[in-house]
Write a structure and sequence with these properties.
Layout lengths: L1 H6 L1 H16 L1 E2 L9 H7 L10 E2 L2 E2 L5 H18 L3 E3 L5 H12 L5 E5 L15 H4 L2 E5 L10 H11 L3 E4 L10 H11 L2 E5 L4 H5 L12 E5 L10 E5 L4 H12 L5 H14 L2 H23 L3 E2 L8 E5 L7 H10 L2 E2 L1 E3 L13 E5 L1 H5 L4 H16 L3 H17 L7
Parallel strand pairs: 1-13, 5-6, 5-7, 7-8, 8-9
Antiparallel strand pairs: 2-3, 4-10, 9-10, 11-12, 12-15, 14-15
Helix pairs in contact: 3-11, 4-11, 5-10, 7-8, 12-15, 13-15, 15-16
Bound molecules: pyridoxal-5'-phosphate.
């Protein structure tokens, strides 16, 4: 870092400001986490310099013997951690991993049955502004109005009527466990591929805190930077029969040279996930999310579906009279970072939204427990309902005191 400060104080300043922002507030975005110094070291390494198009032992460039080792180690760790036949560590992001799965298994125009975006699905699950909804035909399924859970009967009816080529399970804002066995049955009944987009919850799977989709899915795609606590990036797991198709879809179809520093950082994160301390972490993430959801419910903020089984809770703010956008802004002013989020059947526009999404991956990494979540819930409630700047300042002060007891990236 000294070199960056000497060479480019302007950007060094940005890096330090971001570190202070992370340290000084509550980071409750469900898709974010604090990577370890070891992961950051791999990311900031000279492996970034190497062109390595292709796969270990089959590269288009010379000089790849060293970086090959990083990718081979990473692949072996991924296979061990998830019990998968095959792993591809090269996708630059979660969206790239999903793109590769579509490219490997489908033809343009094919139908894809996936969760509707306003009910928690991701852009890559059939949005009109994304490749998935432009080059493929989306068939969205929803959650039930009464209990806000996936309606597996609706999924099956849609599958039988519309005959999709692929069915996707997984979402960005669904707080409950997904019945992968049921999805597999439905996919088999209609002869569809079954893909799981595990971006949000794969870290919980890695830590044994929730059931794994790997035994059920043809392909499992995910990001590596959420609960999993690795670098920004993507990964694909699949059965042996699909290994070649997936590899070809990632490179050369969708991407060029892999980011070898990121591949190495993924390997570091996977090793961390294999340690017993990570299992404890993953279970604590879930316990904290439950405590946070309960705490918010006690403050009059309703958790969608009544609670959570995972690392995130989706909170309906309707009873408070505050919109998701206003809540996000008020929390930001009190040093609480979270995001507005549509709730199922939301009457508001997506940029306003009736809800917020909160997640516990980062606060758990900094060592907070269920008792702290009670305090976090009360701070969120005070910030959301704050009518004046003095209250916001008070909450910001309390946030500062709480995070000082559990520092992220502690100072040496
Ligand atoms: N899939 C799901 C379910 C996600 O939540 C996300 C990102 O939040 C992605 C895919 C895309 O990941 P990325 O932003 O790395 O492209």
């Amino acid at each position: 870092f000294g070199a960056l400060q000497a060479e480019d104080p302007e950007i060094a300043g940005v890096v330090l400001d971001e570190l202070e922002r992370l340290r000084g507030g509550l980071q409750l975005i469900a898709s974010e986490n604090f990577t370890s110094p070891a992961v950051l070291a791999a990311l900031g390494s000279t492996l970034s310099n190497k062109y390595a198009e292709g796969y270990p032992g089959r590269r288009y460039y010379g000089g790849c013997g060293v970086v090959d080792q990083a990718e081979e180690i990473g692949i072996a760790r991924a296979k061990e951690l998830f019990g998968a036949d095959h792993a591809n560590l090269q996708p630059h992001s979660g969206a790239s991993a999903n793109f590769a799965a579509y490219a490997a298994l489908l033809q343009p125009g094919d139908k894809v049955l996936a969760m509707s975006l306003p009910h928690g699905g991701h852009l890559t699950h059939g949005s009109k502004v994304n490749f998935s909804g432009t080059w493929f035909e989306p068939v969205p399924y929803t959650v039930r109005k009464d209990d806000e859970l996936i309606d597996y009967d609706e999924v099956r009816d849609l599958a039988l009527q519309r005959r999709p080529k692929m069915i996707i399970a997984g979402a960005t804002a669904y707080p409950r466990l997904i019945d992968f066995a049921r999805f597999r049955e439905i996919a088999d009944e209609v002869g569809a591929w079954f893909m799981v987009d595990a971006a949000h919850f794969i870290g919980l799977v890695a830590g044994g805190a929730i059931p794994s989709p790997v035994p059920y899915a043809d392909v499992v795609c995910f990001t590596t930077h959420k609960v999993l606590r690795g670098p920004r990036g993507g990964m694909v797991l699949c059965r042996e029969e699909l290994a070649k198709r997936i590899d070809k879809a990632v490179f050369p179809f969708a991407q060029g040279g892999p980011l070898m520093h990121a591949v190495a950082a993924k390997a570091v994160a996977l090793r961390e996930c294999l340690q017993p301390s990570y299992r404890e972490y993953a279970h604590q993430v879930v316990a904290n999310a439950k405590a946070l959801a309960d705490g918010l419910a006690a403050e009059g903020m309703r958790p969608v579906s009544g609670g959570t089984d995972t690392h995130l809770a989706l909170i309906d703010l309707t009873a408070t009279g505050v919109t998701g956008a206003d809540a996000e802004r008020r929390c930001d002013a009190a040093r609480i970072t979270l995001n507005k989020n549509a709730i199922p059947y939301d009457p508001q526009k997506p940029m306003v939204a009736s809800g917020i999404r909160v997640g516990t991956p980062a606060v758990t990494t900094q060592g907070m427990g269920e008792g702290d979540m009670k305090e976090v819930a009360s701070l969120i409630a005070r910030a959301v309902k704050a009518e004046d700047e003095a209250t916001t300042r008070e909450v910001a002060g309390a946030v500062g005191a709480l995070v000082a007891r559990h520092p992220a990236y502690p100072r040496p």
